[in-house]
Amino acid sequence: MPAEFSYNDRYGIRPGNRWVGVAIFFAVTGIAWLSWAGLHHSNPPIRYSLISYSITSEKEISVRYSVLRQDANQIVVCTLIARDFDKNVVGQVDDEIEPGLASLERTASVQSRGPAVNADVIGCRPK
């Protein structure tokens, strides 16, 4: 009498997926880190945005920008630049904002060494 045919005897028992646990661990860790990074960096302590700029003379440009800071008692320094037609920086100034309002609009002038065609707020940082 022939023995009953068994695929397990012939090919062996297939091992379980050992990588599933590791993949779940990395997925949970990655999603947690991505959530933390998104929430942490989406609400910075100092926000700024350029509103407008106007050329007041060949050697000066006026920059209007807004600043929103979480701590109204913090001194903030914003770096403003002026660029020429070839996008070279022709003027730069650090505008210091004293403690006071948490949200404010400010106008500052940037002296340039040549004719400026545009301006920008490079960044704002606490002092």
Q: What does the model show?
A:
With 127 residues, the chain is α+β, with helices and mostly antiparallel strands. The protein has 2 domains: 7-41; 46-126, Immunoglobulin-like (Sandwich). 22% of the residues lie in helices and 45% in strands. It is built from 2 helices and 6 strands. The protein has a 3-stranded antiparallel beta sheet, with no helix packed on it. A hairpin with a 2-residue loop joins strand 1 and strand 2. The longest helix is centred in the first third of the chain and has 23 residues, at 19-41. It is elongated, with a radius of gyration of 30 Å.
Helix and strand layout, with pairings?
Blueprint: H1 7-11, H2 19-41, E1 46-57, E2 60-69, E3 76-83, E4 89-97, E5 103-111, E6 118-126
Antiparallel strand pairs: 1-2, 2-5, 3-4, 3-6
Brief rundown of the structure:
The protein folds into 2 domains: 7-41; 46-126, Immunoglobulin-like, CATH 2.60.40. The protein is built from 2 helices and 6 strands, in the order H-H-E-E-E-E-E-E.
